[in-house]
């Protein structure tokens, strides 16, 4: 191994955690992020790095370009999360090297953020992720997407507006909704039947479209105990769910590997859940206005 190759290897390993973080936020999948790092290393190993003045920025650029190509290929092959859907959205994770790692990474980054990022164009996603999350200047981002720095800034701004969204209810109501939804999610994950019942209005109505399952036809369930029983049985799905703004109110999104498969929109009254709309139909998911909740 030459001195240059040894230096490249050492520097790549030193920056691996940061580069992996870039790739994960770009792609939303731990497995795909590792694939991107492997591809980036092949390119780096073949490159002439003797004239590189900013090694960290150069490595970030290589990884970002690989991720951009992967995102574009995903779209051109129509591998968007809304197009190809397994019968059980969580079942696909069985093929992942470490399903638990996917859940941990999603929690650390914010599942709702990954879902919203997945609605952006590849160029918007790259501009937003690199600038807002990793402080890469627009002068460096522009050439990656064959745009001017000003155009890259506009892409990031557009993405930022999409990520933040707009609430349809006052902030105080959002806070109350968030507490109820957080408690509902915790009880669902833990299979706590009594806690679920306490959060539901006695006459709560749950509606699930055909794509949500488990029946081939739309499902309507009425009553706190029946709805709580179903929510408790969905603990596995709840592991890959997080609160988000769904059409301007607090709801839940489920997205294994950062790809949206299902959303729950809630109705509230007097601190309890009165309605749950379980949305899994591809067209309905595309029409949702999703955004990230402020912590």
Mean pLDDT: 85
* Physical arrangement of strands within the biggest beta sheet: 2-1-6-5-4-3-7
What is the general shape?
elongated
Q: Rg from C-alpha positions?
A: 21 Å
Which bin fits the share of residues in helices? 55-70%
| Number of beta-strand segments | 7
The succession of helices and strands, N to C, reads HHHHHHHHHHHEEHHEEEEHE
The biggest beta sheet reads: 7 strands, mixed
Terminal Cα span: 48 Å
Number of domains: 2
Structure description:
This protein has 295 residues and is an alpha+beta fold. The protein folds into 2 domains: 3-81 and 120-164, Up-down Bundle (Butyryl-CoA Dehydrogenase, subunit A, domain 3), CATH 1.20.140; 171-291, Nuclear Transport Factor 2, Chain: A (Roll). 56% of the residues lie in helices and 15% in strands. The chain has 14 helices and 7 strands. The protein has helices spanning 3-14, 16-27, 30-46, 55-76, 99-109, 111-117, 122-134, 138-144, 149-164, 171-190, 193-199, 224-233, 235-239, 282-287, and strands at residues 200-208, 219-222, 241-246, 249-254, 262-269, 272-279, 290-291. Strands 2-1-6-5-4-3-7 form a 7-stranded mixed sheet, sandwiched between helices.
């Amino acid at each position: 191994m030459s001195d240059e190759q040894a230096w490249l290897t050492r520097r790549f390993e030193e920056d691996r955690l940061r580069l992996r973080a870039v790739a994960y936020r770009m792609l939303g999948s731990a497995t795909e992020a590792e694939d991107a790092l492997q591809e980036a290393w092949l390119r780096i190993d073949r490159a002439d790095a003797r004239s590189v003045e900013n090694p960290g920025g150069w490595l970030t650029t290589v990884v970002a370009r690989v991720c951009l190509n992967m995102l574009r290929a995903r779209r051109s092959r129509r591998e968007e999360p809304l197009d190809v859907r397994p019968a059980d959205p969580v079942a696909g994770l069985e093929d992942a090297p470490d399903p638990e790692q996917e859940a941990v990474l999603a929690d650390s980054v914010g599942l709702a953020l990954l879902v919203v990022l997945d609605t952006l164009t590849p160029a918007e996603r790259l501009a937003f992720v690199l600038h807002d999350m990793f402080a890469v200047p627009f002068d460096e981002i522009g050439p990656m997407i064959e745009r001017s720095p000003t155009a890259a800034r506009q892409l990031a701004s557009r993405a930022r507006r999409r990520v933040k969204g707009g609430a349809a209810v006052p902030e105080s109501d959002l806070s109350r909704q968030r507490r109820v939804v957080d408690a509902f999610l915790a009880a669902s994950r833990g299979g706590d039947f009594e806690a679920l019942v306490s959060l539901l209005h006695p006459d709560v109505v749950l509606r699930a479209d055909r794509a949500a399952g488990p029946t081939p036809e739309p499902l309507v369930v009425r009553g706190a105990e029946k709805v709580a029983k179903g929510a408790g049985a969905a603990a596995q799905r709840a592991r890959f769910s997080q609160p988000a703004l769904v059409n301007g109110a607090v709801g839940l999104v489920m997205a294994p590997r950062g790809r949206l498969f299902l959303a729950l929109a809630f109705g509230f009254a007097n601190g309890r859940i009165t309605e749950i709309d379980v949305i899994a139909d591809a067209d309905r998911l595309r029409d949702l206005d999703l955004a990230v909740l402020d912590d």
